[in-house]
Amino acid sequence: MSNLDARELEAFLALADELHFGRAGERLYVSQSRISQLLRSLESKIGARLVERTSRRVRLTPLGEQFLAGLRPAFDSIVKTIDEARDMARGVGGLLRIGFQGTANDQVMNAIALFQSRYPECATEIVEIPFSDPFGPVHRREVDTAVVLMPVQESELVLGQVFSKQPQSLAVSTRHPFAKRTALDAEDLAACSLIGVHGAAPEYWRRAQAPAATPEGLPIPAGPSVSTLQEGLALVQAGRGAMLLCHPTADYYGRRAVTFVPLTGLQDSFLALVWHRNHETARTRAFSQALAAVADAG
């Protein structure tokens, strides 16, 4: 073990992900030949081939697959431990990128203010993330943590503070028959088309925003799909369908041609703070604590 080189392990992991020597080199900012050299050195130390190379493709050998399964979690754990130690040595500094969907509500903004007062050496950057891709920016490391609309069932994400419990409402055109109602029940949704979400969001999340059936099993007609809230409200205004929104979002995006009718019978809306479990830092933990303090106080 003492003669293994961390760069050899990094090269193998990059090659296992990319299955291409050139792309693996680009990922590690080294040449293709350097990746090949590091892999040969690793295979020599292990005593067997880990990767099969042909003129057409690159693939792992059975031993390479087994080696990858054991190496990946161990290597990620080492990297995480080093990052945590570095953060502790430096204190909470650097830059924290916080993603949000739609609009950053008062709790989020108050948490950011509290975080900045606690850690003035750490800058914060607020990034709007796509409504149709709530988890992608976290997976791609475009943000460090994100406030997203529940539910969250991603195994690679840590579910932090869950907050902002809000009742649901139904956005409809002022010309829609429901616009004259003072309240609606979830079973009423069978009589309207719900505008859905298309994009990279997982199916379970998209179904939560536009369910296919009422709680009692009545089918809900599917309306058009959108990638942003603004697109959805434009279609609502045009009479193309209805859209489920929590009360604060309805208030924020209120339009004269759109009516928001209180809706009962569905689970309340919640927001949640998430981050990737392999990229957790002292900054993400500190912001989660700030958000929890604000949520508890509210």
From TrEMBL:
Keywords: DNA-binding, Transcription, Transcription regulation
Keyword Ligase appears in the UniProt entry: no
Gene3D superfamilies: Periplasmic binding protein-like II, Winged helix-like DNA-binding domain superfamily/Winged helix DNA-binding domain
Domain HTH lysR-type positions: 4-61
Top-rank taxon: Bacteria
Entry keyword Transcription: yes
Family: Belongs to the LysR transcriptional regulatory family.
Name of the molecule in the record: LysR family transcriptional regulator
